[in-house]
Design brief:
Elements: H1 13-16, H2 19-43, H3 45-72, H4 76-99, H5 105-127
Helix pairs in contact: 2-3, 3-4, 4-5
């Protein structure tokens, strides 16, 4: 993002990223994708699909945390918040999975969002 809050594409930043960091992200993403495929084979495509979002979300989160760490020091709070938020997202996914076939879509999304907010908020306040 630039100073005005606009998102910009800067390919030159790739040169500043160590090759080791890129390889680690690639290998981790490939590993989680394989796990998602195995989960999909065993428990079905819905369960596998939930795992497919994980590499993209985690890689983006870790990149943002790394940038913040360079600006203001250790990012322990950011990592904790990401873990608690991810736990809330798992609760959201389980709610959608359990209720989607039984209730109207808007109600399911509302209930799942409420469950996510309650779980993530409770975990956040419990870990402070």
């Amino acid at each position: 993002m630039n100073a005005r809050g606009r998102i910009r594409l800067r390919p030159s930043k790739l040169r500043d990223t160590p090759v080791r960091g890129l390889v680690v992200r690639f290998v981790f993403g490939a590993f989680v994708s394989v796990v998602a495929g195995l989960v999909g084979l065993y428990w079905g495509p819905v369960a596998g699909g939930v795992f497919l979002a994980f590499p993209a979300i985690l890689a983006a989160t870790l990149t943002l945390i790394e940038e913040e760490e360079h600006r203001r020091g250790p990012a322990v709070q950011d990592v904790r918040g990401a873990a608690l938020g991810a736990t809330g997202l798992i609760v959201f996914a389980v709610c959608v999975w359990a209720l989607a076939a039984r209730l109207p879509a808007l109600l399911v999304l509302g209930l799942a969002t409420a469950a996510w907010a309650v779980v993530a908020g409770a975990l956040y306040h419990g870990c402070r």
